[in-house]
Amino acid sequence: MRRPLAGRITALLAAGLLLPALAACGSDDKGGSAEGGDSALVIYSGRNEKLVKPILDKLEKAVGSEVEVRYGDSAELAAQILEEGDRTKAGLFFSQDAGALGALSREGMLAKLPQSSLDEVDPSYRGGAGDWVGLSGRVRVIAYNPDKVAEEEVPDSVHDVVKPEWKGKVGFAPTNASFQAFVTGMRVLEGDDATREWLEGLKANGRTYAHNLATLDGIEAGEVELGLVNHYYWYERVAEKGEDKVNAKLHFLPGKDPGALINVAGVGILKDSGRTETAQKAVDYLLSKEAQTYFADTTKEYPLAAGVTSTVEGLPPFDSLDSPEIDLGKLESLQETLAMLQDVGLV
After folding, report:
1. H or E element: which one contains 77?
2. What is the model's pLDDT at position 335?
3. Distance of alpha carbon 300 from its chain centroid, rounded?
4. Looking at the DSSP assignment, which residues form a beta bridge with residue 110?
5. Is the pLDDT confidence value at 288 over 80?
6. Sign, CA torsion 203/206/208/212
7. Number of neighbours of residue 330 by Cβ within 10 angstroms
8. Which of 16, 187, 197, 314 is such that its CA lies 20 to 30 A from the CA of 89?
9. Cα–Cα distance between 286 and 280 in angstroms, integer?
10. Nearest to 41 by CA among 16, 12, 61
């Protein structure tokens, strides 16, 4: 079974905009086939193995079934699921961002979730069709080097970082899925023309890095004065090294700026997998207090369910974030974002 979006993503694969999901073709480090047997719940995880393997190991016991995991990039895995269609072995898709879930929802690949599961999460952070639900949230921020720039001089908008005074001083990771989701959000909020102009300005002003952690490294090393990252990378580093050993600070953007986008990691059940009951147990576990506390305490994200709140020192309360109002399901137009990034010369 082939679907229209799958064809468009295939074209992107051919053009080199999406890499083949090679990392997704293996199972977890226990060995065994990634295809899985009929009894195994196969999870396609766009979340980094280092971040989520501990909680997925616990999930296996919670659902009472063998669980096998394919790790890869969320967009690549969504493309793979679309290509596989009703032949997919995936029972559950654990996405790093809402856009990939929205793409599968639009193509009718996801099963509707019980209202009891949906009600665990605010409507802003679940799919409008009721077929995916957010698990944890993270906010885009500006990280900066306090030795290079004073806190009061840090821009209050991503639009400011493309001004001439920041030329050569801005770090960002254009191939990172979270950056691409943010750019997609800007396209939804402000239109393609304004977003393209902003990207051209960022290219002229900025220095590119492979990922968020490398961007943070560049800020700490003084290679750039500030950078566009997700909040939790800084908090993880502080937890590991101590705040006095981290030569960077965070600035949370006010005024519903597009650079303050809150994106979510979430899950959806593949309707054609034949493992709906087990997959639903997995969803319920990931919404449980144990799993939500893991996201709060270990990955330093914002938990979205079970009444769990973050206890991370210095992390602003979730309801204090001044982020733009956006339908996260509309972040599914990732392929257009990738094409724009290629046109601008950033990927």
Report:
1. helix 74-84
2. 85
3. 14
4. 270
5. yes
6. negative
7. 17
8. 16
9. 10
10. 61
Distance CA 278, CA 288 (A): 15
Q: If you count them, how many residues does the chain have?
A: 347
d(CA 22, CA 134): 26
Query: Nearest-CA neighbor of 21 among 4, 45, 42?
Result: 45
Confidence of residue 5 (pLDDT cuts 50, 70, 90): very low
- Enter the DSSP assignment of 110: B
Q: For residue 318, what is the DSSP state?
A: G
State the DSSP H helix or E strand holding residue 263, giving kind and residue range, or none if neither.
strand 262-269
Pairing of strands 262-269, 133-144: antiparallel
- Selection from 256, 52, 260, 24 nearest residue 136 by Cα: 52
The per-residue pLDDT for 72 is 94
Separation between Cα atoms, residue 161 and residue 145, nearest integer Å? 15
Between the CA atoms of 146, 252, 200 and 149, what dihedral angle is there, to the nearest 10 degrees? -10
Question: Could you tell me the two tokens for 292?
Answer: 């939500």
**Residue 61 CB contacts under 8 Å (≥ 6 apart), including other chains:** none
CA atoms 45, 43, 116, 332: torsion sign: positive
User: CA Rg, the chain, in Å?
Assistant: 19
